[in-house]
Structure formats: structure tokens, C-alpha cells
Write a structure and sequence with these properties.
It contains seven helices and no strands. Helix 6 crosses helix 7. Helices cover 69% and strands 0% of the residues. The termini are far apart.
């Protein structure tokens, strides 16, 4: 249509952004979702700049694009909610994932939960996920040396927590934990 698609897009954006944003905000509960829909609307306008009508018709065209983007967003939310509900049902029905009531946690479990989130995550990656120090380093985005130092300290703190709980595991420092 025009020889300067960038300039035309900027002009359309400057003229229509606020009305389109208002339109979408009035139809979305979450401002972050509204921002996503507005971004998708203008991304579509950029991709299809030659199809955007001239003058004020561009704003009306964008309302139509925003309307379809909102519909897509809502469909995506419904699909996400359905998948989440199905997963929640599976998890609730899974006997392997049903943990004991909080009052029934073992001394070992209480000692583990007494550690910091970082210590529990590090020890869990090694013991439960069976990751080596290189894999843990990649997962956490730190160096292997940092993993070794943190793991050594976490093991010592866990051994101390176990000892405080009256559990004697002398080999803890040398085991996979």
C-alpha cells in the first residue's frame, strides 16, 4: 500500500494504541493478559501492514483484530484450566503422591524441612533427581565448584539437623546425600 511500512505502522500505532488498550482492558480481568492481547493485536498489524485500511478505518480494523486476539486468549485460558483440572485430578488420585498428614512426618522429614529452601533444593537435585555436580551446576546456573562447596555445606547442615533430631547417620557426609 505505502512505500514506508514502518512509518505507516508508527502512525497507526500512535493513533490507535490508547483506544485499543482501553477496549482490551475493559474485557480482560488481568492487566498482564490485556498487555499480551494488545501486543498480539499490533504484532498482527505489523505482519499485515499492507492489509490495514487507511485513515480511521485502521482503528476499526484493529478492534476486529483485538476481538479475535481476545477470543484466542480466552480459548487458551480455558484449555489451560481444563488441563490443570485434569492434572489436579490425576495428582489427587495418585497414591504415590499422597503424603502423610503433617503430624505424621518422620523426624527425618522434619529435619529435612528445617533446612533452607536452597539447601533442600540442592540436596533434592542430587538425591532424588540423581543429578551429578555438572548437571546441578547447569540447572542452577552456577559453577561446578560452587555446587561442590554449597553441597558440602548443605550436607553438613543436614547432618547437624539430623543429629539435633536424635538421628545418628555417621556416613551422611560420604553418601549421595
Amino acid at each position: 500500500m505505502g512505500s514506508d511500512p514502518h512509518g505507516r505502522f508508527v502512525q497507526i500505532y500512535e493513533h490507535a494504541y490508547r483506544p485499543i488498550l482501553g477496549y482490551v482492558l475493559r474485557r480482560c480481568e488481568d492487566p498482564d493478559d490485556a498487555a499480551d492481547v494488545v501486543a498480539e493485536t499490533f504484532a498482527t498489524a505489523w505482519r499485515r501492514i499492507d492489509e490495514v485500511p487507511p485513515g480511521d478505518e485502521a482503528r476499526l480494523w484493529l478492534y476486529g483484530v483485538a476481538r479475535r486476539a481476545l477470543a484466542n486468549h480466552r480459548r487458551g485460558e480455558r484449555r489451560h484450566e481444563q488441563r490443570t483440572a485434569a492434572l489436579r485430578e490425576q495428582l489427587n488420585a495418585s497414591p504415590e503422591l499422597a503424603g502423610p498428614p503433617a503430624a505424621e512426618y518422620t523426624q527425618f522429614g522434619r529435619a529435612f524441612r528445617s533446612l533452607s529452601d536452597d539447601d533442600r533444593e540442592l540436596l533434592s537435585l542430587v538425591a532424588w533427581e540423581r543429578l551429578d555436580t555438572k548437571q546441578v551446576a547447569r540447572t542452577l546456573g552456577i559453577t561446578r565448584n560452587a555446587v561442590r562447596v554449597r553441597l558440602h555445606r548443605a550436607r553438613r547442615r543436614f547432618a547437624r539437623a539430623l543429629s539435633d533430631a536424635g538421628i545418628d547417620i555417621p556416613l551422611l557426609e560420604r553418601t549421595a546425600l
